[in-house]
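Notebook B, p. 112. Complex prediction, attempt 2.
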Amino acid sequence: MKHLIPEFERMKARFPAGFDSSLVLPCLHRIQADRGFVADEDIVGLCEYLKVPRIQVEEVLSYYTMLRREGIGKTHLQVCRNIACSMRGAEDVIEHACKRLGVKPGQTTADGKFTLSTVECLGSCGTAPVLMVNDAYHENMTLEKLDALIAGLS
Amino acid sequence: MPGRQLIMNFEVTPASHTLADYRARGGYETLVKALGMAPADITKEVTASGLLGHGGAAFPVGRKWGVMKPNPGEIHYLCANADEGEPGTFKDRWILEHAPHLLVESMLITSYALGVRHAFVYIRGEFDLPYRRIQGAIDEAYAAGLLGKPVPGSDFALDIVVYRGAGSYVCGEASGLITSIEGRKPYPRNRPPRLTVKGLFQKPTVINNVESLANITGIIRMGAEEFRKVGTAKSPGTQLISISGHIAKPGVYEVEYGYSWAKFLDEDCGGMLHGAKMKCVVPGGISTKVLTRPEIENLTLSHESVNPAGSGLGSGGMIVIAEGTCMVRLLQVLLRFYHHESCGQCTPCREGMGWMHRIIDRIVAGEGVPDDIERLYAISHANDGTTICGMGDAAGFATVGILNKFRDEFEYWIANKRSKMDGRLECRA
């Protein structure tokens, strides 16, 4: 993470003075975007840089669902399974994705190309069902669109 | 169009979110007007407008602001709550994506009124395009000299930081939100003290929903009196309703308070999907109680009409449910969600959500026992008012709302080990 410190400094400059503790989450976001997950050495480095206790970083890391301690597949497919999406076919989308990729939710394909996850409401209920391909929303999902998506990324 | 529009009152184009387009619509002219007023007069105007919060609780915005007694030299903070996570709700996303400068201008005006030097936009981590849009608008505002240094012609300056969450429903709760900004896991806090007395890093903090804030510019531009001419006496203005589920035309609609609910569904939203019959509707996010079609037939979309029916407009996340939908499976989805999102701080919620989730899973697996229905009621009631934040209560409201109206479906599944409806949540053609 040391190479990210100049970026962290620029982030810090946007916050009011004395808000170093607030930088834990933004820094973890940045580290994860860089490495794909947060490693032990990142935790140690971040604690030293922000002068916060290790427990605080561990607590944040283990609480938020978007933060990871381990790497995942190249493409992260996250399918919403909450109420509005379920009412518009999310269960079929999840089943189809599992079959097509040969994995269960939470698993990564053997070739390391895809990780499939199910998530709760993504705030896209009007264009349900929705899934995320890494950071991007793909709305009004159909089985055909899903096939095309996976084929394009394989 | 369901009545007059105050926020969605411009044509969305590929450039309508930019500073140039916003200025062409009269953007940032209200800021100049506001900076010519005394800060206290802005709060007075907002209070007089009767604006009700749009995050779910419909708390009067002016009353929340009124608790802050801005003293020069003291630190106060403002947070825009853009952690939109109540299932069924996706209206703040519309503002962030299409009218980000409206939020920025409103935050400037609000900060001037409340003596705020640093403000935050707390946005949920999954929102990628909305994040890029609001950060883009803020960057444009910095470049134009509206943020970061005194606004030309005044000595008022503001900095806005966009703070991204990382996947947690509880962060939408105001005190959970500020705990998250403090760099810790978002445990909500007991009140008192109110957050307007001791909030972010123990400083007085106002946390307003994005849509609530987005109304501020309009209120100051047209004045409270004109604003009150829109909507009803008890529900002034408009509400963004995000509608989803088994409806022909889902999406975000700006509805003037007092508009006929049935007309909104049947005409504006194109009626039911595939011409189905309507079974019930979740009015404002899953934490509000479901109402059946006959119950809403003569209601209007206003707090004074919906609240006496035993529910509320909440966050405006309306979910329409067609006949034939299995309410047992539906509750299973809701309870799985609440269990997943319980932060674990308070015992009744931490244990109760898991317990309810296990019961509903057991019923769906065909292993339910007749006592399970009463047990769901008992856990819902045990949660009511015994937790720091409202999540435990909300899960109970949702559960009791469904059990009261569709108890027969639960009894049927327990007795027959299968759904009374065929177990589906979809509405097929």
